[in-house]
Structures are given as C-alpha cells and as structure tokens.
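Sanity check

After download, print the first record. It should look like this:
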Amino acid sequence: MHIFSCRVCVLIIVMLFFCAIPLTAAEDNDSSIITVNTEAQPSVLSVDVSDNSTKQPDTLSQNDVHSNEKPLADDEKTADFEIADPLEPLNRVVFGFNDALYTVVLRPLTGIYNVVVAEDVRDALDNFFYNLFMPVRFVNALLQLKLEDAGKELLRFGINSTMGIGGLADFASSDFNLKRKDKDTGQTLAYYGFGHGFYIVWPFLGPMSLRDSIGYAGDMYLKPINYVGSLNKSLELTAYRYTNNLSLNRDNYQTLKESAVDPYLSLRDAYIQYRAFQDKK
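Expected structure tokens:
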C-alpha cells in the first residue's frame, strides 16, 4: 500500500509538471494548438466542468470574462484562450463515443425524465446538490486566499440548509443577494500558476484539460456524496445528479452540434473560454 501511494504521488507530480509547461512551447505546431477569437461568444456549454454549478450560462460575453478586471494585454488574452491538443485523434474517438451515448441514450432518457418530473422539482434537486457540495467551494476559496468568498459560502450554506430546507431552495441568492460563485481545485491550480497542460476528452465525463482532470480528482475527496454508504450507492447518486443536471440543460449540446461545422472544435472552444471565465472569478 505504501509503494502504491508513493507511485500515485509521483504520477500527480509529473502531471502537475506538464501543467506548468508554457503553451508557447507548442505554438509552432498549428495542429496542436487551438486559438479562440476573443470576440467570439460560445453559444452553449454541454459539460459541467467545475462540477459545482449545474445550470450553465448559454452565452459568455467579453464583459463577463473580464468583468472587474484590468484590460489584458494581447499576449495575455491569447494565452487565456489557447490549449494544446496533442491527443486530438484519440480525443475525437472518445468524443464520438460520448456523442453517440448522448444521442442514443441520454437525450431520450432525459426527455422521459422531464415529462415525469416537474421542472420545479428538478430545480429543487439542483439546489440540493449544489448546497451539498459546499465543501468543494469553501476549501478552494480558502486555498485561493479569498476569505470573503469562503465566508459567503458558509453563509449561503447556513441559510439554504435551514430556510431552504436542506438546500432545496436558494434563499441566499433570492433574499440575501449571496449569489453562487463556483470554486474548484482546477481553479486553485490555475491560481497558483499551473497552465491547462493539454486537452483531454474523457469517456462519460467529457472535455477537460490535464490540470482540470487533476482538479476533478481532488474535488472527489471534498464531495459528501462520495461518503454516503457503499461505492455503488455513491455512484447511483452521482449518476442521478448528472441526469438531473442534463435535464435542465438538455438542449445546450444539441444546439452547439447543429450550429457547428465541426462540433469537436466548437466544444473545445467553448470549454477553454468557459474555464477562462471561471478562472477570472
């Protein structure tokens, strides 16, 4: 067990090293870099990247990305919207698998789910799971030295857990103007200077960067849902949460796919722009 733990630690260190490599090292290879026009606005996002928020904004404007921030230099803007994609051939295969899974299984399933479960109930469940994952946002706010955000997260949790009946209602947002502000381990790594590394499309999970993949694994330890009963019970609850999430954002991916010349590239663009928006918070 000790040897296994050491190997895991070494693997994480190596992955973090690759995250720290500047993207400029790969700029000479046009096929491995995606540069996004900062004036373009992704219309949809089909993936819950942070794994905290379930409802995704349909659009991200330039003002959203840089609100309350000083104007960025051209080279800084370019860096924000670049990600290496050396695994593109493999990523496209996995993307095709995920697309087929969505089209054949998940979209019809969520269509039935939407008929059976009222939207108000699905919204309440969305609020419940968001409230339950408070430790992810609270711990990462502390790690990013954003004490005000950490304090507001505790206030939100206290208000919604009591007045909101276990988080089913979000009175903190509606009555106390304490809006949702997502934090995750991927953002914390970005705060300390780790770059995206490179782009990965995971089966079932969808698009991430190497950095956010490490962050996703770290977030798993902070989610109370993973400590409820057996592993099977945790997986069942996680699957249900994702189903409920998808039911509230059911048309996002379909809209992107229908409007895109190359859905793979469009999703990659949307992913990196959305994460740039999240990192600025």
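If your output differs, re-run the checksum step. Summary of this record's structure: Residues 1-18, 20-50, 56-72 have pLDDT under 50 and may be disordered.
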